[in-house]
Amino acid sequence: MRTLVSIAFALLLFSSANAQKSKRELVISSFNIRYNSPDDGINIWEQRKDWLTHSIRFHQADLIGTQEVTHTQLLDMEVLLPNYAHVGIGREGATQGEYSAIFYKKERFEVLDSNTFWLSETPDVVASKGWDAALPRIVTWALFKDKHSGVSFFHFNTHFDHRGKQARIASAALLTQKIKEITGTSPVLLTGDFNSSPKTEAIATLLSSGLKDPYLNLDADQIYGPEYSANGWDATGRTSDSRIDYIFYSGGVQPLTLQILDGQRGERYISDHFPVIAKVELLEN
Fold first, then answer.
1. Tally of CA atoms within 13 A in the half-sphere of 138 that contains its CB
2. CA nearest 49: which of 78, 29, 28?
3. What sequence ranges are listed for the domain Endonuclease/exonuclease/phosphatase (predicted)?
4. pLDDT tens per residue, range 11-48
């Protein structure tokens, strides 16, 4: 009898530990949705928006760091993702220019703080353009409290310049500096289109700051999908040089799985970038 009681107690403890772990697990995505260009033929926004938002709901993403979102697209996503709210402003200020908005499940997270800064020599100046960048670029961040687990963490989301090599390197340095200033020792999630392949100086700068890439820290069986994320509406011949969308982490975060979702149906694509989706566990503060 005593043995049965001991077994039952052990099972109860195991079940309780698993339940607590499950409360700390979340799904995070980085998704360049492609701005609503009228020149995208069969892949125009009107043909993709239902598919794209359905994929977010199906994968039960808790947090989505988006890039290239225009205000019109933001309004569409608000309608099609009714269980989500978002933080962020346009890169030209207020509702002007592309957003790097962070979408989050309203019922799960409380926003304790949030802000946006510019990737430039004057990060607090709205619409400021830095170094050799072609366009103003931003970082939107939020401090979330997970209502399931009680754990608080930061989520940063960005889109580096597509032309300026020096801008990408300098942006990485500024971003790592800002993360340290803002977060202290709290858990950090960083999503974005960095317009940088894995072996570039910009990515090396991020990794040298203590940020980690789950693609490099998980076993092969924990990673699924193509080795590239940017498809440019034609995935033929793409290699790891086109893996330019990332989810980084630091502090009390344990990656569990990583997927690059190959959203392609014949000649139709979910976006000109495939979303990156990670499951992570938030460790207790």
1. 30
2. 78
3. 31-273
4. 444 444 444 557 899 999 999 999 999 999 999 999 99
Q: Which domain holds residue 278?
A: 25-282
Count of domains for the chain? 1
pTM of the model: 0.93
Residue type, 217: N
CATH for 253: 3.60.10.10
* Alpha carbons 61 and 82: distance in angstroms, whole number: 13
H helix intervals, the chain: 2-24, 45-58, 71-80, 165-183, 201-208, 214-217
Measure the N-to-C terminal CA separation of the chain; round to a whole number of Å: 39
What's the CA gap between 217 and 231, in Å, rounded? 24
Q: Is 284 exposed, middle or buried (0-12, 13-18, 19+ CB in 10 A)?
A: exposed
Q: Is residue 254 in a domain?
A: yes
For 92-122, write each residue's pLDDT tens digit. 999 999 999 999 999 999 999 999 999 999 9
Identify residue 238 by its one-letter amino acid code.
Answer: R
* Residue 21, token pair as written in the block: 């772990």
